[in-house]
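Hello Y.,

Per our agreement to keep a running log of every chain we model this quarter, I'm adding this entry. I've kept the format consistent with earlier entries: sequence first, then predicted structure.
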Amino acid sequence: MDKEDLIKKWLNDELTPVEKQTFEQGEDFALHQTIIDSAKQFKASNFSKPETFKDLQFAYQSEKSKTKQLDWFKPLLRIASVVVIALGIYFTFFNNNLIVEQTLVSQQTTIELPDHSKVTLNADSEIKYSKADWSDKRLLNLDGEAYFKVAKGNTFDVVTSQGVVTVVGTEFNVKQRNDYFEVQCFEGIVKVTSGDISKTLLAGDTYRLLNNKFSQDKITGLSPQWMQNISTFKAIPFKAVIAEMERRYDIKIIVKHLDGERLFTGGFMHNDIEKALFSITQPMDLSYKTNASKEVIIYGNKK
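Predicted structure for the entry above:
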């Protein structure tokens, strides 16, 4: 068996015990192991295209032949070849066509997935999924908030740090921000699992986990309010309302003499910051002031 086949089998963990022993005793085994260890430290770019294995092998052999001709330059060339091959092997074997889509603060966007399902990302949110595996496994990771219109097909999973949402074909909204996890079902049936709590939602149902406390509620709209440029809240800690406004308007809000855990019910518009600030402060008998550096100070009542 030639060296290229041995390397391929080693990367795929397919070597027999005898082949593995022979391979590990080879003079280049330490270099190959370093390549794999280094590859795990790299982060894939959204738009990078990995080289083929033969291209990488050619580059490797070229570098190796140069080291024989220039012994005094050997350490530098070995380091360079490790970096080049590590990047290529990482992209080929670890990246697996990972797609990352994200929004900035004060931005939202709609993305079409490979099966024509659509995801609308709210401000400061991110999804990740494997394009290569999508036809066999419709699964994505979400950090932030997104509204999904899922095309019918295999099971569709949305994985967050606080729970997993499973559907077949439906419309739903998932919000995951720090200690706040909420799923709203607008059409079809949604299964939500978070820790020991598992619920099946029908259209109009809401699943909420706030500071590890579970509650259910009802909704009447046909889509989430934030898609109509309105953020709404029902008995939510005021600090979460402030965080949402900071994401929406790209501002810094400082709170003085106010308990951030105080519950707020209401909402604010996304197209007028003055009206938005009035909407969240007036119901709670608070005051505020703004300055030129995109900073807002909200004042509570001193005790």
